[in-house]
Amino acid sequence: MIMRKQKILIVHNYYQVPGGEDTVVANEKYMLEKYGHEVVLYNRNNLELKNMGIFQKLMFPVNTIFNFKTYYDIKRIIKNRHIDIVHVHNTLNLISQSVYYAAIVCKVPVVQTIHNFRLLCPSATFYRDGHICEDCVKKGLMCSIKHKCYRNSKIQTAACVLNMKFHRMTGIYSKINYICLTEFNKKKLLQLNNIKREKVFLKPNFISNSNEIIPANKRKNRIIFAGRLDKLKGVDMLFEAWKQLDNSGIELVVCGTGPLETWCRKFIKNNKIKNIKMQGFIYNNEVFSLIADSKALILPTQWYEGFPVSIVEAFSVGTPVICSSIGNAGTLVKEGINGCKFKCNSIYELIKAVFRLSEYENIYESTIKEYKNKYTMEKNYQKLIYIYNNI
Hints:
41% of the residues lie in helices and 18% in strands. The protein is α/β, with parallel strands linked by helices and 391 residues long.
């Protein structure tokens, strides 16, 4: 007997600036359709905020907590399209958590992919004032208002706190299911009261790649940094480390722009560093080619991160990753298997990790093996269907 493929409603609120979550949504939609599922996408875009009328702006704080348009839209789609599962990615700001209530009223299971820490932290990052912060988990959400954690505004942070408290009070979070991208992500989510462990599943993001793997002995003696040039990403520490690595013969290629770009260029000039190459902004396919032909990708992040797609992109071309041993990034990298890890605030440990990479003789082979075992479309589909069948 051939079982009918589930009909999936994907729900996603796009931010004004496109990001990694949007790519995940597109990839999963494509994957489900490829495997024969009917997929309906319900989406809003925060760019709509710019064109709101006066009445809409007045109603915005209420709609952020519970959007009745979303509620009735979702109920209608579930009924008319005979939806089996509602899969939510982002609800901020226009969709709101009303999507959960609509699905539950229709007796359709809901699964929410956890892309960040928004259910626990108003800023969604567990980071403020230059350091990791979990005060809202340990001491309560009111801490965030004091520190203006959301957009540096007490009023906007208070609105976030009200939203979080309201939905915690209704108990809605205990009635839905969750997909966490890493074990670290899962551990943090389970700190939220009333979430049942059996409703929390683990499934990483994936990327598809059919490019030829370049052997280790044919790669250039360089390490790639690809990301925003920001203190949050550990860029200043990375440059201080490469100042000491100037005679190592290992080139650091820096791809990206950001608030520290001017500082980076001055640092190179003032210290007469020869082995750091600033590429500025370049397109993803160019970055991907550089990563594929390099000894490693480096990610000296100073915060927990979400799910850095660049890590899995590196794995897909057999490139190991050197990264901080904290948060989600630290969970994805296994010492000696697909990379090296170091204490996030230690320049000395970072330098040791760079040299240690060469000690792992088969790391390029084991890196691509890790990718094939965990991060391909085929493996991802198996995990997603397992989750759908169990909710």
